[in-house]
Write a structure and sequence with these properties.
- It comes from Pseudoalteromonas nigrifaciens.
- Belongs to the ATP-dependent AMP-binding enzyme family.
- One of its GO terms (molecular function) is medium-chain fatty acid-CoA ligase activity.
- Keywords: Ligase.
- It holds the Pfam family AMP-binding.
- It is built from twelve helices and 29 strands.
- By secondary structure, it is of the alpha/beta class.
- The protein has a five-stranded mixed beta sheet with strand order 4-3-5-7-6, with helices on one face.
- Helix 1 crosses helix 2 and helix 4 crosses helix 5.
- The chain has two domains: about 350 residues, ANL, N-terminal domain (Rossmann fold, 3-Layer(aba) Sandwich); about 110 residues, GMP Synthetase, Chain A, domain 3, CATH 3.30.300.30.
- The longest helix is centred in the first third of the chain and has 15 residues.
- About 30% of the residues lie in helices and about 25% in strands.
Length: about 500
């Protein structure tokens, strides 16, 4: 896969680390790839899992797995240790590569230093039963796991490159300068933020995530993100809605986005037209897109030459679409299948689970078929996951979790009157420790009386009517996200 355009003598990658900046051209990059390839070929087995920060080392491992004819299994940095262990078991990886020592594994069998800067630890994993990957599998990307168990989506090199090429053609910026703000293990940044810019002869800037102001999935120091954009002066960025809202807030407070910006793609969750209009008025050239891992990240995208602010853009040329009962179905060079499941037949339509309207090849996203929360950071969470943990605590009698399009999850809770607020808070804190940070309950509202069928807030079999509850407690939720306070009736 020559997605790195490694014959280029101009910088492919510019790495920023604290006060250091290092330019890496194609020859240097190839040398490091070959060094890693020699090590990978010394181990038997097919799967190579890696959990690394946003550094050139990530790109080296990514490329080396392809050159070695191995299966790449990138793991997002925000996955909890439990989720990481689950991925390692499910993917049957023989090697795990990390830029930090892992106390849950045996001692590393080897280490390697990439570009004389990044030390990588290589762990060999004893696999009880070798995994049988689908033919042509080059990468297994794991979703954030709506129920706590991430799902492996198997992709070929061809499907990834097809999306990257379609994006190059559609965006049509020659030699773009791109700054990666999302984790490289997120498929959208991997393909649209690395492969596509480099296929267009561009340069990719990498900054460690903590230096961008991130702690886990949360942006704790947004000023660092703004400073990075000012320093790099990129042409292109990829954002989730929460990061877009951050940039808009800074711009409203007087920040001047660099004039170099030509194209900011925003995806991962639905973005309101109002936010897009406001962003553009503040010199942020934002364009909404839509995609899913099963389609190798991007399905549709708005561009300056083909733009509808109310939509998620026009469908990429290599994908076919149809709508049945409001649900979007797609067909084309999609995923090979889910890991450890039956293969996906490319001749068959794939149901996305999204409710969509389509007009003249342009998609208008209306919502989800399933009861899935998609936060403004683009994380997918089944509400029943944290709810079930809450309800497992003695004294918590009802719990309904919300957070669609919001930066974090909140909950409506009814508990036994004998349970004091401090003890309830302890219960919630204990539950949060079992969850990755994106699935934690950060704010909660305690009810004085239980939700009931008579109020129209429960079905006859006592399932929560989420829309009705959301409307009933609209003011409470607005106060949560405006003030961030815990409220009790």
């Amino acid at each position: 896969m020559n997605y790195y355009n490694t014959h280029s003598v101009s910088p492919l990658i510019i790495a920023h680390n604290k006060d250091q900046t290092r330019e890496i051209n194609g020859d240097e990059f190839n040398q490091q790839i070959q060094k890693v390839v020699k090590i990978l070929q010394g181990f038997s087995g097919k799967g190579i899992a890696y959990k690394l920060d946003n550094t050139p080392a990530w790109l080296v491992i990514d490329a080396a797995t392809a050159v070695s004819n191995k299966v790449a299994v990138p793991i997002a940095h925000f996955f909890s240790e439990q989720q990481t262990q689950y991925v390692l078991v499910q993917c049957g990886a023989n090697l795990f590569i990390s830029d930090t020592l892992n106390h849950l594994l045996e001692e590393p069998v080897a280490s390697i230093t990439v570009f004389e800067l990044y030390t990588l630890y290589i762990y060999e994993i004893v696999v009880a039963k070798p995994n049988s990957y689908f033919p042509e599998t080059q990468k297994v990307t794991f979703t954030s796991g709506s129920t706590g168990q991430p799902k492996g989506v198997c992709l070929s090199a061809k499907s990834q490159m097809q999306v990257a090429q379609s994006l190059c053609d559609k965006i049509n910026i020659k030699k773009p300068v791109h700054l990666c703000l999302l984790p490289l293990a997120v498929l959208l940044e991997n393909i649209a933020g690395v492969y596509a810019p480099l296929k267009s002869g561009g340069t990719v800037h990498l900054i460690p995530l903590n230096e961008l102001g991130f702690v886990g999935t949360a942006l704790k120091q947004p000023a660092q993100l703004i400073a990075a954009i000012d320093k790099v002066k990129p042409n292109t960025l990829i954002l989730v809605p929460e990061l877009l809202a951050c940039l808009v807030t800074f711009a409203e407070q007087g920040w001047q986005p660099p004039s170099s910006l030509q194209f900011i793609a925003v995806g991962g969750a639905l973005v309101s037209e109002m936010l897009i209009v406001k962003a553009r008025s503040l010199n942020l050239p934002v364009y909404q897109g839509y995609g899913l891992s099963e389609a190798a990240s991007v399905v549709s995208l708005n561009t300056p030459t083909n733009d509808n602010r109310q939509s998620a853009g026009s469908v990429l040329p290599h994908i076919q679409t149809k709508i049945e009962n409001g649900q979007l179905f797609i067909k084309g060079d999609l995923f090979l299948g889910y890991l450890n499941h039956q293969p996906h037949n490319k001749k068959q339509w794939y149901g996305t689970g999204d409710l969509v309207e389509q007009h003249q090849n342009t998609l208008f996203i209306k919502g989800r078929l399933k009861n899935l929360i998609i936060t403004s950071m683009g994380r997918n969470i089944s509400a029943e996951w944290p709810e079930s943990l809450l309800l497992s605590q003695s004294g918590i009698l009802q719990a309904v979790v919300f957070g669609e399009g919001r930066p974090f999850l909140s909950a409506i809770i009814y508990a036994d009157t004998k349970l004091s607020n401090p003890v309830l808070a302890q219960y919630i804190n204990a539950i949060n420790k079992q969850l990755p940070d994106y699935a934690r309950i950060q704010k909660w509202h305690r009810l004085a009386a239980p939700l009931s069928v008579q109020q129209g807030l429960l079905t006859t079999n006592n399932r929560p009517k989420r829309d009705a509850i959301s409307k009933q407690y609209h003011d409470v939720f607005e106060q949560f996200y405006r003030l961030g306070e815990v409220i009790n009736e």
